[in-house]
Write a sequence for this structure.
């Protein structure tokens, strides 16, 4: 699959055939998945469903099917997203394919319910509570139109077998799948401009994808994605597709390689190792407006030393991100974040301070500081210097027990030691440790900490 070609043609975010299917993940909802998500089940009440039905009835009758909808191109830079962003989850069977690898109740747990380790929690945490997908629902859970929780494309007539779809060009096929699965659900699904639609196919079609702003059934909605048995069992594969639905694009590394940012769910596929349990990187969260200004450090002249809290531990005191302009162009900057191997980041290469470059076209690029199994700043004294030599970031130390890293910055006319300015980290949210200016036992500022990390000439790797 030539993904870059597809994306340049279709202006879609495509994740086609990029996953390694975990053993046992294909075709069945195994017992471990149930255990993993726990017994909790939160679903819309019948009264809420009735309210929705009334609203839909007001908005219009059955919507026409469109088999060649035009997807709008995603903007280069994602716009902020706040509040309720419910996803409507449609379980969709290809005509003639009998597999039913997921129950509607499982889909509720996996994609809708908060508090059970599914995608509602993933996005609650990635957004620091700024969005809420728990208002989504799985319409087939209570539908008499669905059979065993699934809508059948065969109900739309001939031409809906997987082989029929796969004869079509990619873009046409994707549009047809989204439109027809919605159509198979009939009046159970009514889309509105704020809607997000998540299609689950019952067999692997080799094309998991996500898109912002698609037109489905004549309505341009916020976002949509289609996942399949080989991908919906991989939480962060689904996470990337839903991220596309929020307008996010893939992240790169500097080689340049798309999908080669092992610290971002939007780029996590380096060396074809498959999707890992990785959180959404700081610059992506920043683009969506999810990191408050008080948690973003803006380096000032001198050599400030600050405490960063692990991106996935917002209750810890410290900045969640530093934003360092690279030039007079405000849309071009570096971001610095501390990532700790736990929670949604349990499968990152290891603890480390991660540098991204956000380019003026909105592209987010992971900047490795070395070629190693963990390409982040991991060793005390290790330093990143940008190509122009105007931005330096030095790791002083990582304190995993505290969930923090201390980092020194030198911006502009670095090399003139002396200011030793230290910025007090902001308190963590939600009753964190709040230990004020403590640097977690790493020691404080001063030029004495910096050599030999500060190099006299610009370098990219230490
Ligand atoms: Zn993708």
């Amino acid at each position: 699959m030539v993904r870059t070609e597809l994306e340049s043609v279709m202006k879609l975010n495509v994740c086609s055939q990029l996953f390694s299917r975990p053993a046992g993940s294909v075709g069945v909802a195994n017992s471990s998945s149930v255990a993993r998500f726990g017994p909790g089940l939160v679903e819309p009440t019948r009264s809420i469903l009735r309210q929705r039905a009334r609203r839909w009835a007001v908005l219009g009758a059955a919507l026409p099917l469109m088999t060649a909808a035009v997807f709008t191109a995603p903007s280069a830079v994602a716009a902020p997203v706040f509040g309720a962003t419910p996803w409507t989850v449609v379980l969709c069977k290809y005509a003639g394919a009998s597999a039913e690898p997921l129950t509607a109740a499982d889909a509720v747990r996996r994609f809708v319910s908060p508090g059970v380790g599914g995608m509602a929690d993933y996005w609650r945490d990635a957004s620091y509570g700024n969005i809420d997908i728990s208002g989504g629902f799985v319409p087939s859970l209570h539908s008499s139109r669905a059979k065993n929780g699934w809508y059948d494309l065969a109900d739309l007539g001939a031409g809906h077998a997987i082989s029929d779809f796969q004869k079509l060009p990619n873009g046409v096929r994707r549009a047809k799948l989204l439109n027809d699965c919605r159509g198979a659900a009939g009046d159970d699904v009514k889309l509105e401009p704020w809607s997000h639609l998540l299609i689950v196919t019952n067999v692997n079609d080799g094309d998991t994808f996500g898109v912002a702003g698609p037109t489905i059934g004549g309505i341009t909605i916020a976002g949509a994605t289609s996942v399949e048995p080989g991908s919906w069992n991989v939480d962060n594969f689904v996470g990337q597709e839903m991220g596309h639905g929020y307008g996010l694009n893939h992240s790169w590394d500097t080689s340049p390689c798309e999908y080669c940012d092992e610290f971002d769910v939007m780029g996590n596929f380096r060396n074809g190792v498959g999707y890992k349990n990785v959180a959404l990187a700081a610059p992506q969260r920043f683009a969506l407006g999810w990191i408050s200004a008080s948690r973003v450090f803006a380096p000032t002249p001198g050599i400030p030393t600050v405490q960063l809290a692990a991106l996935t531990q917002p209750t810890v005191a410290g900045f969640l991100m530093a934003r360092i302009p690279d030039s007079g162009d405000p849309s071009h900057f570096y971001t610095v974040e501390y990532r700790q191997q736990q929670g949604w980041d349990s499968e990152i290469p290891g603890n480390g301070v991660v540098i991204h470059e956000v380019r003026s076209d909105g592209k987010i690029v992971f900047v490795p500081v070395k070629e190693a199994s963990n390409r982040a700043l991991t060793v005390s004294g290790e330093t990143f210097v940008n190509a122009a030599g105007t931005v330096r970031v030095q790791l002083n130390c990582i304190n995993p027990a505290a969930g923090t890293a201390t980092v020194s910055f030198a911006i502009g006319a670095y090399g003139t030691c002396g200011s030793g300015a230290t910025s007090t980290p902001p308190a963590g949210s939600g009753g964190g440790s709040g230990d004020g200016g403590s640097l977690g036992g790493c020691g404080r500022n001063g030029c004495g900490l910096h050599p030999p990390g500060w190099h006299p000439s610009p370098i990219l790797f230490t």
The pocket of zinc ion is lined by residues 13, 15, 240, 244, 250 (CB under 6 Å). Residues 170-184 form the longest helix (15 residues). Residues 1-75, 414-423, 430-462 have pLDDT under 50 and may be disordered.
